[in-house]
Amino acid sequence: MNKQLIECVPNISEGRDINKINAIANSVKTVEGVKLLDVDAGKATNRTVITFVGEPKNVIEAAFRLIKKASELIDMSKQKGEHPRFGATDVCPLVPIANISMEETAEYARQLGKRVGEELGISGYYYENAATSADRKNLATVRSGEYEGLKEKLSKPNWKPDFGPTEYNQQIVSSGVTAISARDFLIAYNVNLNSTSARRANAIAFDIRENGRVHTINGKNVLDKNGNPERIPGKLKAVKGIGWFIEEYGIAQISYNLTNISITSMHQAFYETDLCATERGLRVTGSELVGLVPLQAMLDAADFYLQKQERSLGISESEKIKIAIKSLGLDDLKPFNPQERIIEYVMNADADKKLIDFTIKDFAEETASESMAPGGGSIAAYVGALGVSLGTMVANLSAHKQGWDQKWEYFSNWAVKGQKYKNELLFLVDEDTNAFNKIIDGFRMPKTNYEEIEARKLAIENATKYATEIPFKVMETGHNSIEVMIEMMKNGIQNSLSDAGVGVLCAKTAVTGAYFNVRINAKDIKDRKFAEEIIAKAEAIYQKTMVLEQEMMQIINSKI
């Protein structure tokens, strides 16, 4: 069963005292199996967003320790800051990341709250998907009145805390209360203005946020049929926002919570804010990401602006990240390091180095060493990746060719297809070596009794099948990738005809080399039906590739 993972993103009401911040954040590291991903402190807001991830029980333990440490070090009776807050650990949301449902995550949130209330004597509320009633789902509603209004709030029967003491006491004076939730992935995202006016920033926030603004005529609220103030909704769904002045930077910002980025993305919020600011005579200068962001959100932002510019989308991931940073102005206030701010990059930081992460020289040295891997299968996959990279290059050059502006989308689509083939082949570079290592692991299994011998035989057989399937996948992908090169030879920039031709030759080498590996691995498979079927399919792909090579030569000979 795949490992369950949840993310925890507590916001503590301290953003200035680095010693306190580190002590609170480091409490997370005392729990084995939990990875601290990010600590993002804000001086003006006097608030720090801490992000960590792990298996649910470990994350709950780490969150409990963090809440405990925050209550010991932060005295809410003395705390001041721009951001709305009502507790030392103001909010503590749990976010399902992998192999866990929202319902399961909500149950863990309630387990955490129960412990916080019973063991720490800290009161609080459940919100979002952990809420005990519909009127407590919205965090803004739960936090209304903030810390200063807690005494009055707790005196009201309808605001009895969900966990912890129900009456205002000395613990609440010191630590405030805590809101705990299970929610979808949320991006805390600030847009920077060339203004110092919080009022004007707020006006833009009202234009954009889903809740919009109260409808007024001549300064008076317009009431609906129930006698409540009528609201004019904002432009974007699943967006909360307020405007404020940030003394640290000397600018006004619109601070957004993007509560569902599949509904409203980061780049949509930025783009619409820019339009609204321009209409009001202001200018957006950039933006600021609080905490971490999923990789896909950055790639989507890059694609959005590449399309606006009528440029090819078939460029590398690293180039797209650069475009997203510059397009959104994420480095406007301070440097933006993707390795520290993108979730997937941070989580993989301590992973073992892959072959594709080697320099060209180191890859060659590793191949030439006395180690048996990487071998011919990995090299075949890598040669195939180089081949389709050439085809993709021709597509990108063609998309950018002067006078071919009306064709940019056609070539962009081919470049995107080429990037997909390239990424598949790069994955197979390492996977071929991993498959070989599984065979070695099988041979190292104990064989001191009948059960162990049979288990060892089965492990070796399954590993050998897999080590045959991987080069077969290289053959399939390498063969299919030739379509990019052939198309570019026919319709792309003709000055790059030879580049596409070399790409076909590389793909053909990948197919041929992987074919050898299929055949040599299949001979050791005991299941002969499986072996004969995969060899037959491999032979068919090999023959079709030879035909494509001849087609490439005919094009070359007719045009050069």
Structure description:
With 560 residues, this protein is an alpha+beta fold. The protein folds into 3 domains: 5-182, Formiminotransferase-cyclodeaminase, Chain B, domain 1, CATH 3.30.990; 187-347, 2-Layer Sandwich (Alpha-Beta Plaits); 355-559, Formiminotetrahydrofolate cyclodeaminase monomer, up-and-down helical bundle (Four Helix Bundle (Hemerythrin (Met), subunit A), Up-down Bundle). The protein has 18 helices and 15 strands. It has helices at 18-26, 56-73, 102-120, 139-142, 150-154, 170-175, 198-208, 266-279, 295-308, 317-328, 338-341, 343-347, 360-368, 376-399, 408-443, 450-491, 497-522, 528-559; strands at 5-8, 11-12, 34-42, 47-54, 89-98, 124-128, 178-182, 187-193, 213-214, 216-217, 220-221, 231-232, 239-246, 251-258, 284-290. Strand 10 (216-217) and strand 11 form a beta hairpin. The radius of gyration is 29 Å and the shape is globular.
The name of the CATH superfamily of the largest domain reads Formiminotetrahydrofolate cyclodeaminase monomer, up-and-down helical bundle
The CATH architecture category of the largest domain equals Up-down Bundle
Number of strands: 15
Mean pLDDT: 94
Number of helices: 18
Function: Folate-dependent enzyme, that displays both transferase and deaminase activity. Serves to channel one-carbon units from formiminoglutamate to the folate pool.
Family: In the C-terminal section; belongs to the cyclodeaminase/cyclohydrolase family.
Keywords: Cytoplasm, Cytoskeleton, Folate-binding, Golgi apparatus, Histidine metabolism, Lyase, Multifunctional enzyme, Transferase
EC number: 2.1.2.5, 4.3.1.4
